Automatic annotation (TrEMBL):
InterPro entries: DNA/RNA_pol_sf, Peptidase_aspartic_dom_sf, Retrovirus_Pol_polyprotein. This is Peptidase A2 domain-containing protein. The lineage of its organism: Eukaryota, Metazoa, Spiralia, Lophotrochozoa, Mollusca. The keyword Ligase does not apply. CDD domains: retropepsin_like_LTR_1. GO terms for molecular function: endonuclease activity; nucleotidyltransferase activity.
Length: 284
């Protein structure tokens, strides 16, 4: 019966009460077909070394054979260790020692500690090292795109009705400006029925009201074709010119807003005096 060297594919730490024994679980998968492993290339002494990224490992491992091939200027194992690496099946591996190695990953330099083992095992990077160099990122939440159905289900009240304000706003107009009456625009025969249907719908919702008596102002009607429907609106540019502007002292208004609990993130910029939002409040 031939003896085969164990292949180290995964490493993790468990601590014993003994100071000279450290449990390092290894899984031998020589005869098991694997899916594609996570590997990254790292440069050590200008030599490319392919490491396995093992999130279950808490130590970086390289073999003595690979360590010698790196041809470091000081090719010595600087620190001996009494820690023994124990596999899942109880097999113990005594590391030759440890060595701090200068590594380069994606143009960034790192000084990493490696356990050097006598077995010809695959180089492994620990979970801490993978996180430090950014090879693996821990994802604590998964973003799920919102669907139309979810938005309507969660915020159904927002889409009901016309979205009118609770208070009535009074707009003052200048009585000295003469009123303007625009002649009615012709509507193409092909869309007259659709326009009539839309006007009836808007009247039933209370958006518009039928006007049978004479009026001082008549605005042009504008019909805009949208996908699958028509939008009917008016062009009140002449009426807008008669509206009296309400003048407020903006600084005082914003200071009053700052006192309200609904504007907790409105802050004044010290240099320019402008007001800016320090963050976007998502919970209304």
């Amino acid at each position: 019966m031939s003896k085969q060297k164990k292949k180290v594919d995964a490493i993790q730490y468990d601590y014993y009460d003994s100071e000279d024994e450290l449990f390092i679980g290894t899984v031998s998968v020589d005869s098991v077909q694997q899916c594609e492993e996570w590997k990254e290339s790292m440069s050590i002494n200008n030599k490319s070394v392919v490491f396995k990224l093992d999130t279950g490992a808490q130590a970086n491992i390289i073999s003595e054979k690979l360590f010698r091939k790196l041809s470091l200027p000081d090719n010595k194992i600087t620190e001996k260790t009494s820690i023994k690496l124990v596999t899942y099946d109880g097999h113990k591996i005594s590391p030759i020692g440890t060595r701090m190695l200068k590594c380069t990953f994606k143009d960034r330099k790192y000084n990493l500690k490696f356990f050097i083992v006598p077995t010809d095992s695959q180089p492994i990077l620990s979970a801490d090292t993978c996180s430090e160099i950014g090879a693996i990122v821990r994802v604590r939440a998964v973003d799920k795109p919102l669907t139309k159905e979810e938005v309507i289900s969660d915020y159904g009240e927002t889409f009901k009705g016309l979205g009118t304000l609770s208070k009535t706003h009074h707009i003052e107009v200048d009585p000295l400006i003469p009123s303007v009456v625009h002649p009615p625009r012709k509507i193409p025969a092909a869309v007259r029925d659709q326009v009539r249907t839309e006007l009836d719908r808007m009247e039933s919702l209370g958006v518009i009201a039928k006007q049978d008596e004479p009026t001082d102002w008549v605005h042009s009607k504008v019909v805009v074709r949208k996908p699958g429907k028509l939008r009917v609106c008016i062009d009140p540019k002449d009426l807008n010119r008669t509206i009296k502007r309400e003048h407020y002292q903006l600084m005082r208004l914003l200071k009053n807003c700052l006192k309200q609990s609904c504007f907790p993130d409105l802050k004044q910029h010290m240099d320019s005096g402008r007001f800016v939002l320090t963050r976007i409040v998502q919970n209304y």
